[in-house]
Amino acid sequence: MLKIKIIGADNNPVSRDEIFTFYVSDMLYNPYHRRMNVLNDGSVEFALEEEPVMIHGKLKIPGFGHMWVLSDNFGRGYKNGDNIDFVREAALCRISETEKYIEKHKTQSAFMPSPKCLSMLREAKAKQRLAELKPNNAGLHNMSALSSALWAGEMAAVERARDTIQKRAKRDFLFGCGGFSYPYAESEKTKMYDSLFNFATLPFYLARLEQEKDKPDYSTLDASQDAFEKSNIITKGHPLWWTHTAGMPPWTENLNWEGGAKVPGSIAHEIDRVVKRSVKRYKGRINIYDAINEAHDWCNAYKLSQDELVQMTKLCCDAMHEEDPNVKAVINNCFMFGENIADERVQWGLINKRNMTPYTYMQKVHEMNTQYEVLGIQLYCPSRDMLEIEKMYDRFSIFGKPLHLTELGVPSRYEDVRYNATEGDLYCLRYMYSGLWREDNWTEQLQADWLECFYTVSYAHKSVEALTWWSFNDPGFIPGAGMYNMEGDPKEICFRLRALQEEWGFNF
After folding, report:
1. Quick check: helix, strand or coil at residue 300?
2. Tell me: the pLDDT tens digits for 466-499?
């Protein structure tokens, strides 16, 4: 049994809502189902089936936000029988990790952190020492130490990224955005889009494209593609296959797994037909597609096994390359840290003993020798700090593919989810895609601050080759995450992005 106490700044256990976010994962961030017992004193117990584990929890951290934090026992993990003070351990682990990060990059690239970064690191260590000397107020000092340590780690990651960019030559890069409504009725808005992006995502959802079987309507896509070509903007099709009920028309409801590509009524037959049809139509014009979307035990409307989901992924990629050997297939993933696995939640499909995270899914994809060119990553309001995001890039770089941020965004204000949101969307928007970063509430300035830090860390990472902000207009998928507000005016984020691009040598 692993026992954890979680003490807040008031020296009492944190709130119930915070306690019930806690879960354990393996050392590659793949969660186990949440099997914990909450004791009367607010501490929790986990019976571990496998060891070692990391501990994750989403906490309200004064001065830093409402964020996921973790503790990993300095990379060694925890085992049954361990009894830990989570906030203290998380602070110590982040202090140690930040020191090692700084030392590593000092050696590799002569990186020197700012005085402010080093001051925050010293403050974290001082607060942690105060917690040891004044146990009656340890909760306050440990939480302050964690806040300062998170600041120090994030500052180190962003500053190191800026240092890397300054020392490195400009490289090819795709700055993208959803292009579902392009061109805009307002010419100034179209000009703003053209000045910010060289990459656009077009909607190939089958539910829109072929509402009635064998009667596809490409007219809207044709017009959009023509407009983007006139503006010299590269396009991507999204997605060719997505087994979410929002993406599939009613005539697909009764498709069967049994049968190959030549058997009508089979999933393989429809994949072969619709994927090849779209790739053929735009051959030489659209050279990159999200081959499949969210197939890692999240969107599984046909209740397929994990092996079948991976085989379905290969079918999509194979169909693309059979029609056009030069096309690039993106395998698109969401929930990159896999927190939904701990909750035993999927959008559609089976709850397995251990559902796939994007990481374990991509491992299976590779084991099947699937040909694909790009690994796609979605990050909506991830509630993980910039150092953790950089580490996530490192983890997925092991697959040896370029990384594209296919969908991302954070809000510019608080706004509740739309009234007609489905239960699955409520789970995404109120839990998975919620959190606060640095401030008490999101604002247009904070949204722009986040973009600047995130884009800097991403552009500096050698594996990342594209960033696609999902919503150009409010309300957006994440409410308030658009670059233009509901009144049709640009937000600060537009001008912050343009300033970054000009600094890095881009001018669209």
Report:
1. coil
2. 999 999 999 888 999 999 999 999 999 999 999 9
Is residue 419's pLDDT more than 80? no
The letter for the amino acid at 8 is G
Choosing among 3.90.1150.10, 3.40.50.2020, 3.20.20.80, 3.30.460.80, the CATH entry for 174-503 is 3.20.20.80
**Do 280 and 273 meet the contact criterion of CB atoms below 8 Å apart?**
no
Spatial distance between the Cα atoms of 56 and 58, rounded to a whole number of angstroms: 7
b/e burial code for range 419-437 (CB count within 10 A of at least 16 → b): eeeeebbebbbeebbbbbb
Report pLDDT for 477.
87
What is the Cα–Cα distance from 480 to 503, expressed in whole angstroms?
27
- Long-range residue pairs from 269-275, CB within 8 A, at least 24 positions apart, any chain: 271/241, 271/312, 271/315, 271/316, 271/319, 272/315, 272/319, 274/206, 274/209, 274/210, 274/216, 274/240, 274/241, 275/240, 275/241, 275/316, 275/319, 275/320, 275/323
CA distance 283 to 281: 6
Confidence of residue 463 (pLDDT cuts 50, 70, 90): very high
Please state, in angstroms and as integers, the Cα–Cα distance from residue 395 to each residue in 208, 360, 392, 479, following that order: 35, 11, 5, 30
Q: Which two tokens stand for residue 235?
A: 């396009």
Instruction: Work out the number of other CB atoms within 10 angstroms of the CB of residue 388.
Output: 22
Cα Rg of the chain, angstroms: 23
Cβ contact 375:404 at 8 Å: yes
- Residues contacting residue 362 through CB under 8 Å, at least 6 positions apart: 331, 333, 375, 396, 399
d(CA 76, CA 52): 7
d(CA 417, CA 277): 36
| CA dist., res. 240 & res. 320, Å (int) | 9
DSSP letter (8 states) at residue 259: S
Contact 98, 387 (CB under 8 A): yes
How far from each other are the two terminal CA atoms of the chain, in whole angstroms? 57
In the structure encoding, which two tokens stand for residue 142, read together? 């440990």
Nearest of 67, 17, 61, 63 to residue 42 by alpha carbon: 17
Residue 418: pLDDT band with limits 50, 70, 90: confident
Chain region(s) in the chain for CATH 3.20.20.80 = 174-503
